[in-house]
Design a protein that fits this description.
mainly beta, five-stranded antiparallel β-sheet, about 325 residues, seven-stranded mixed β-sheet, 2 domains, about 5% helix
């Protein structure tokens, strides 16, 4: 089996990083790879997760924090990076397609370290980066391991890969619990696949998908339209759903918020956009329609809380960053 190499622009420098991507010459998902082709991604594509491929040259541990020095054969400054392997860093092997722990890492191993493209890195060399996912690439003949966020159609949000799980695809969460294809939608996932159709987006039937639901770690602040905001009232969890204070977030996004004390309802308005929620009722009104989100709005300490899914209903982009902070942006 030969390897098709996809050239990916990294955020570290103008240098190019090589990522394995396997395909046959005809572009079929099935079949043997027959030749090596190289292509450069169009400049308009922006990866959501950047991968750095190289060899672990050194493993360091200082004050309980583990880091790995990874080098490759690219030209400076894109040839070396130091990755912090944190408690939340997800580690896998492309050989077993299983989760591994930090003790599995050894000097001399080939790894692909992924990190979000929007994190702010200190202007030092070599760069020091908190790794989101580290894949141990034990043999290039084994499966590719890549990290994406997928939409409703299982197309990565950066438009690079679309996956088509079949009955043989194993889909699990971090703990190994079996999931369904629907659980991949609108989620970040680690994808293991062998052969991909040479197209844009590339198309692949994955062997395994591990869905990574980010965990909220900081309930007292959020990043709203790129501005870090200290919340007057903290978020909380209910039935595995994040409950957020509605007024402060909506007003920060330019909405007018009106409280009706007679029927315990809240109107949210901006231009032609209008929403109505009622405390204790799982009926969310928007554009003269109603929908249910599974959890009703709550009044806690004189503050209206709604499930975070309501923000998505408002057309907002909501995700949890690598550091566990909620990010909220207009589309």
């Amino acid at each position: 089996m030969k390897v098709l190499k996809k050239v990916v622009v990294t955020a570290l420098a103008a240098s190019l990083m090589v990522v394995p991507l396997m395909s046959n010459a005809e572009g079929d998902i099935e079949g043997n790879v027959k030749e090596v082709i190289e292509f450069e991604e169009p400049e308009q594509l922006k990866q959501e997760f950047i991968g750095f491929y190289g060899t672990i040259k050194e493993i360091q541990e200082e004050e309980g924090r583990l880091s790995i020095v990874v080098e490759n054969d690219q030209e400076e400054p894109g040839n070396i990076a130091i990755f912090y392997v944190l408690e939340e860093t997800f580690l896998v092997s492309n050989k077993t397609m299983d989760i591994v722990d930090r003790s599995y890492l050894e000097e001399g191993m080939k790894v692909m370290a992924y990190y979000p493209s929007d994190i702010i890195l200190p202007m030092i060399y070599p760069p020091r980066i908190p790794a989101d996912v580290v894949a141990v690439m034990e043999n290039e003949e084994y499966t590719n391991v890549e990290v994406y966020r997928f939409d409703e159609n299982l197309l990565s949000t950066d438009g690079i890969l679309q996956i088509f799980p079949d009955e043989e695809t194993v889909i699990v969460d971090r703990e190994g619990n079996l999931l369904k294809k629907e659980d991949i939608r609108n989620s970040k996932a680690v994808v293991f696949y062998g052969i991909a159709e040479l197209s844009l987006p590339a198309k692949a039937v994955p062997q395994k998908v591990i869905v990574l639901k980010e965990q909220l770690k900081d309930t007292g602040r959020a990043v709203i339209e790129g501005v870090e905001t200290v919340l007057n009232k903290p978020m909380y969890m209910k039935d595995n759903t994040i409950m957020v204070p509605l007024r402060q977030i909506a007003e920060a996004l330019g909405y007018e918020v009106k409280w009706n004390g007679e029927n315990y309802s809240v109107e949210i308005m901006k231009g032609a956009h209008w929403f109505l929620v009622k405390i204790g009722e799982d009926d969310y009104n928007f554009a003269k329609m109603k929908t249910q989100l599974g959890i009703a709005p709550e009044l806690v300490d004189s503050t209206t809380y709604v499930p975070v899914e309501f923000l998505e209903l408002m057309g907002l982009n909501v995700d949890i960053a690598y550091d566990g902070v909620l990010n909220i942006n207009n589309n």
